[in-house]
Write a structure and sequence with these properties.
307 residues; alpha+beta; Arc Repressor Mutant, subunit A; D-Maltodextrin-Binding Protein, domain 2; three-stranded antiparallel β-sheet; 9 helices; elongated; sequence-specific DNA binding; DNA-binding
Length: 307
């Protein structure tokens, strides 16, 4: 038995929660992963996992071994990555998750500069508004908006996105120009509503002006949970909408959207790059983190409300 191979298999099972997901992540048959864990337990003479037909749980001894194994494997990967980077620069695959608008408007257009520096890195970019489990889905890092609720993740603050409230000219012609947030809850106006995928809850408009803060649950005809579809609904005249300035600015400049509720704007939303602390960042992940921090720092208009 290769002790390091068995150790990595055990760590994958713990993080993914199933032998099947661990086998997929390792590119091995499930039977091979099961055999490695059995051999490891026999070698250590201790029960590491409790197995049932539906789930796998870690024993107290298994959790102790897991914590030490993660540290040891991380140190080995760090050493290998450092040597590899010294010889030929970072290489391999990175799995990154980001929303549709950030991927389409910020990350993908800037990737040529990334590949000019690191031509031997391959990025798998998962594009979705869904919040994935970084460990069980084998994701290296993710770009997320809002507070980071999982305190186990390492979070690097990219900035606070500024938002605009807009509507299409067609909407304004039909319904008039709203001037106060409370008008959105009335019968004469409508909003394009967004709902949270994890909770299914429809998110209210939270708007501020000179220290005053209002939360309005507007009357909606359509509720979505994906940012590009949400934007399309606003452009189609289905209601008042809000989105990050960098998303709406080109459409305002082209006359396809107009700002509404003058003086009112949503609260800025923090944006983070997050990654699991259990895995020591290898050379590839480290350079992607640094590049992403540079990219967002070079776009000051992302964080400004006006100008």
């Amino acid at each position: 038995m290769d002790r390091f191979t068995a150790m990595e298999a055990f760590v994958r099972v713990v993080e993914s929660g199933t032998f099947t997901k661990a086998a997929d992540a390792l590119g091995r048959p499930k039977t091979a992963v099961t055999r490695l864990i059995q051999q490891l337990e026999a070698q250590l003479r201790v029960k590491l996992l409790h197995r049932t037909t539906r789930r796998v749980t870690v024993t107290p001894e298994g959790m102790t071994y897991y914590q030490q194994a993660v540290r040891l494997l991380g140190e080995v990967r760090e050493l290998e990555s450092s040597l590899a980077q010294t010889r030929r620069g970072p290489r391999g695959r990175l799995r990154v998750e980001s929303s549709g608008t950030i991927s389409r408007l910020l990350i993908v257009p800037a990737l040529p500069s990334f590949y000019a520096r690191y031509p031997q890195l391959h990025i798998e970019l998962g594009v979705s508004d869904r919040v994935v489990d970084l460990l069980s889905d084998n994701v290296d890092c993710a770009i997320r908006g809002g507070a980071v609720k999982d305190e186990s993740l390492v979070a690097r603050h990219l900035g606070d996105l500024c938002y605009w409230v807009c509507a299409s000219p067609r909407y304004v012609e039909r319904h008039g120009m709203p001037h106060h947030p409370l008008e959105l809850a009335g019968a004469s106006h409508a909003v394009v509503s967004y709902f949270s995928s994890p909770s299914g809850k429809e998110l209210p408009f939270v708007l501020i002006r000179e220290g005053e803060r209002l939360e309005v649950q507007g009357r909606s005809l359509l509720t979505l949970n994906e940012t590009n579809a949400y934007l399309a609904a606003g452009l189609a005249g289905l209601g008042v909408m809000y989105a990050p300035r960098f998303v709406l600015e080109p459409y305002v400049a082209a006359g396809e959207l107009v700002p509404v509720l003058e003086g009112w704007h949503p609260e800025p939303r923090p944006l983070f790059l997050v990654y699991p602390p259990a895995r020591q960042p290898g050379a590839g992940l480290r350079v992607f983190i640094d590049w992403t921090m540079e990219l967002f720092a070079s776009r000051p208009s992302l964080w400004r409300q006006d100008g």
